[in-house]
Amino acid sequence: MSGVDAIVRTVLDLYTSFRFSPPQSQFTILAAFVLENATTHHVISLATGSKCLPTTRFPTTGDALLDSHAEVLARRGAMLWLYHELDRMNSLDSSPSQWIELAGPTGKVRLKLHTQLYLYVSTVPCGDASTRLLAASQDPSIAALKDSTTWATLPPGTPSRGRDNYSLSGVLRTKPGRADSPPTTCMSCSDKIARWNVLGIQGALLSRFYEPIYLDCVIIGGVDDATMRGIIAGECERAFWRRIHSISDTDLPGTYAPHTPPIRFTSIPFPHGKEVLTTATNSSNESLCYTADISQSPEVIINGYRRGVAPKHRSRLKFMPRVCKLQLYNRYTTHEASARDLTYFEAKQSNEEYLQAKAALLGSAGPFHGWVTSGATYEGFTRDAAE
């Protein structure tokens, strides 16, 4: 078994151990972040999902998940794991971490040397990476309709909605892909992976404690044909890092640097993928969300909230999803006491080095100018000390 397949098998074994199964007529997407060193590999987060909330239902209190695509939930689970490792490092009773260490020059934490970070996704991520695959695999009548549609020219700095203008490559896209779905301002997973290749997966808040944490490899499932693999590898490379090639090390502060993770493929099928469940017509509304070392039991998310929680209890911290913005912000303020009187939005604006790197990517002269952000409207909440 190859190294890639060994990692994927570990991910799938963990997934099947949870006994989570979408309805037979529904498929889903699986993503996981995996650390590997010379002796072992460790699935630090795992998630399924392909849904996001319409903009009209975005909460302003940080208690619900706006984007429940598998890659995004898995990344949020990885962030929760990074907070947990900080807790361990600061605890006098815990053993040294196998995966993180203090970096002398910066005084921040980093992954240990010779540690690799993999992102596995059971199919090609939505957005720029998968546009050509969709064009090649869709129903001929739909293809003819798309080809005959005249799309409005996109103004500079304007993302395309879903699969509109699907013949264009290298453009920012918002979710969802289906034109009959309610609009949202969540950016596509292709765009977000490209962002992580400049800013790291840790985000603005964790950058206070961690050096940027970058992907070393992206593993894609669901593409078995050798010719199509070659095409998709090129599409993913463009989507994930070639379209940000204008950013160089000199444009970024500190230890930030553009990264170009290789694209690998696996033939191991994901049992609840669209490629396996060929009769499935719809994607599941539910998302599984798991973070290693936090709890043995994963959460199931539906419409941004934990499944089974009554509406009257959703505003209580202990009933919120573990990886929602408010929960993660509470984690942050346990390590950064000066932020306890700040809003989530204000705290994100307080890390100057991260903001400089972000400006190089999303600023007016950056390759991702036009990125849609939540902003203070949806991030103006403060920490919650509720039990």
UniProtKB/TrEMBL annotation:
Endpoints of the signal sequence: none
GO CC terms in record: cytoplasm; nucleolus
Domain (A to I editase) ranges: 45-361
Pfam annotation, one family: A_deamin
A single MF term (Gene Ontology): double-stranded RNA binding
GO biological process: adenosine to inosine editing; RNA processing
Protein name from the UniProt record: Adenosine deaminase/editase
Species per Swiss-Prot/TrEMBL record: Pterulicium gracile
